[in-house]
Amino acid sequence: MVLNASPARWAQRIALGAVLGVFLAAPAGLILAQAFFPGGRFGLSLFTTMARNPVLARSLVNSIVIALGATGVATALALPFAALLGRWRLPGRGLLKAGVMIPLLLPPFAGAIAIRQLLGRYGSLNLLLQHWGLLKHPVDWLGSGMPGIILLEGLHLFPILYFSLVNHFAALNGESEDAALCFGGKGWRYYRKVLLPEISPGLLGGMALVFVWSFTDLGTPLLMEYRQVIPYQAFSLVTDPDRNPMGFALATVMGVVGLGGYALSQAFNRGQARSGKGFRAAPEKVPGRIAGIAVASALGSVLLIAFLPALAIVASAFAKGWFLSIAPQGYTLDTFALLFQHRITRGSIQTSLFLSSLAVLVDLALGWWLARMVLTESKAWARLWETFAVAPLALPGIILAFGYVALFAGTRLDPAGNPLFLLVMAYAMRRLPFAFRSALTGYRSLPDRIDEAAQTLGQGFWGRVRDIHLPLLAPYLLAAGMLVFAFSMLEVSDSLVLAMKEFYYPITKAMYFLTTRAGDGNNLAAALAVIGMLILGAAITAANRLLGKGFGEMFR
Fold first, then answer.
1. What angle is formed at CA 514 by the lines to CA 509 and CA 516, rounded to 5 degrees?
2. H, E, C per residue of 81-131
């Protein structure tokens, strides 16, 4: 039911528009204005300078190569997992499906600590191969650092692509498959003529998102000490936008890639939704016992490899020492005891818990409010609110943070002073799609006309919200709240950019700071990563149970 544009409705539109305008649209708009209007006049001088600058031009090429490489790794992993787990009744399929979520537990930012320990010149792999007599001299597996970044981001992001594909494989058009088999469409011809056209919307949509996420990732190159990428170049200029406006042009490039990739993913996903409507799903395949065990074992082995960085992080956190040795030189709990005594780590945990909790409250309120507006507004207004709600999926975190620095510099909200309020709003804006989509899904699952019936019986709006909406929406809002909390705890770009003073460091900024200090810095950073993994793992597991098949929609 569309409500009339009463004064109360206009007040809601103005209030909601103000919040989203100031903390979502204005930072991005300011970056665009500064990039295309340097000195107050329209011009492309910043972009031409960027193209002529060899360091910036090389950084752009490197970012594209990393994004393409990570997309390739993610695709190579996600396709077989989605095809086999979506269509085959494999032994332990439920366990394998749960295992696919494991790489999500460790952001590549934290995984960089582990990858250096495993694949560095004096890392575990080289030492193991030398111990076996297979190497005489250490091999630089990471090279410039780019291979490690590609590997980490591909392993972390392949579940995103898997979620985009698995349900589509499970709902393949059985009629098309039967017709193809009747006319001799087997082997490669079947895959090329039937299967690929049916999965291509989900495949291309997921690949677009993976490309965007890896192109705009700041944390992994930063910890891998790989500086010649666009996100790092923008990060290096973020605290001085007035004297060097090139950061605005770099942020604009990332924004264009983000918006373009997201637009492509949504276009492909719309095609995916249309392609399977009204068809009979193809039956599941049942392999033989030996074949099923072999395939399940192969998939489990890949998941184990994908989980190695997380295992290395855990080992580093509990290690007494791990230098020039294949494995840690004993284990201890001392690092975790020190974690709650060290002023930076203890303060960062408290800060992240506080900020993430506030971000959950902001997101649940905004997500619920936006969902209500989408369902009760006219089509044009509903489309506008939905665009605002999902826009953060296309907006790299460093752009939002960079925009906050430029927008609020010199004001009482200047992050150079106290960044806590802006950190809360940055976390909330970045994870707003989780809360919005959960609330919208919950509202659409409510029994027909239950709200209208309560209204007819004299129940006021807030009474209906208290007695009907919130109890029925509780599982959806709870799942969204857990995801918002967990991902806010491990938010990288906003934390690195906005937390400029040591006193206000969240967990991820503290981790970066600790990796730059000698001694027990890496161990403390690894211990912080373990805490983050536990929180994120609990949140993802619980949200997946609450949302079921709708869980994958949170990442589209």
1. 105
2. HHHHHHHECCCCHHHHHHHHCHHHHCCHHHHHHHHHHHHCCCCHHHHHHHH
Reported for 170-174, long-range contacts at CB under 8 A and 24+ positions apart, including other chains, are 170/86, 170/87, 170/281, 171/276, 171/281, 172/87, 172/198, 172/199, 172/276, 172/281, 172/282, 173/198, 173/275, 173/276, 173/279, 173/280, 173/281, 173/282, 174/279, 174/280, 174/281, 174/282, 174/283
Handedness of CA 261, 262, 264, 265 (dihedral sign): positive
Rounded Cα–Cα distance for residues 184 and 24 (Å): 54
Ranges of each domain in the chain? 1-43+333-556
End-to-end CA distance of the chain: 28
Tell me the C-alpha distance between 235 and 227, whole Å. 10
Strand partners, 331: 319
DSSP class of 520: S
pLDDT along the chain (556 residues), means of 10: 66 91 91 85 88 92 94 92 84 85 76 80 85 82 80 87 78 56 54 68 82 88 87 79 76 86 71 48 73 89 86 89 84 88 90 94 94 88 89 83 88 91 95 90 76 66 74 85 88 90 92 80 87 84 73 60
For residues 68 and 266, give the distance between their C-alpha atoms in angstroms, rounded to a whole number.
Answer: 19
Strands of 221-293 (E only): list them. none
Type of residue numbered 221: P
| Encoded amino acid at 396, one letter | P
Give this prediction's pTM: 0.84
Helix axes 343-376, 420-430, angle to 10 degrees: 50
Token pair for 452: 């209208």
As its CATH architecture, domain 1-43+333-556 has Orthogonal Bundle (1.10)
With 0-12 / 13-18 / 19 or more C-beta atoms within 10 angstroms meaning exposed / middle / buried, residue 53 is middle
Helical spans, DSSP H, in 377-431: 379-390, 397-408, 420-430
Distances (CA, A) of 405 to 256, 327, 395, 494, 509: 20, 43, 16, 10, 17
